[in-house]
Amino acid sequence: MAPQPPTGPKIAPQNDLYTLLLIIAASVLFIGIVYLIARSVQILDWPWSMGGA
């Protein structure tokens, strides 16, 4: 018996949408980390020694 071809419509996966959402999520996470570092430096002064001081 020969294999039957798929009968349903071929729908392209929405990879572009998921890629866009992944880029947005990574960007928001990166901006959040930078913001937390900046606020930590403002509140605690510079938490690491500058070396030689």
Task: Describe this entry's structure for a reader.
It is a single chain. By secondary structure, this protein is mainly α. It contains 1 helix and no strands. The protein has one helix at residues 15-44. The radius of gyration is 25 Å and the shape is rod-shaped. The mean pLDDT is 80.
Strand % is: under 5%
Mean pLDDT: 80
The low-confidence parts are none
- The CA-CA distance between the termini, in Å, is 82 Å
Helix/strand-derived category reads mainly alpha
C-alpha Rg (nearest Å):
25 Å
Main β-sheet, in a few words? none
Using the alpha-carbon principal axes, give the shape.
rod-shaped
Helix content: 55-70%
Structure summary, number of beta strands: 0
Topology as H/E string?
H
Q: Count every helix, treating DSSP H or I runs of 4 or more residues as helices.
A: 1
Topology at a glance:
Blueprint: H1 15-44
Short description:
The protein has 53 residues and is mostly helical. Helices cover 57% and strands 0% of the residues. The longest helix has 30 residues.
Keywords:
rod-shaped, mainly alpha, 0% strand, 53 residues, 1 helix, 57% helix
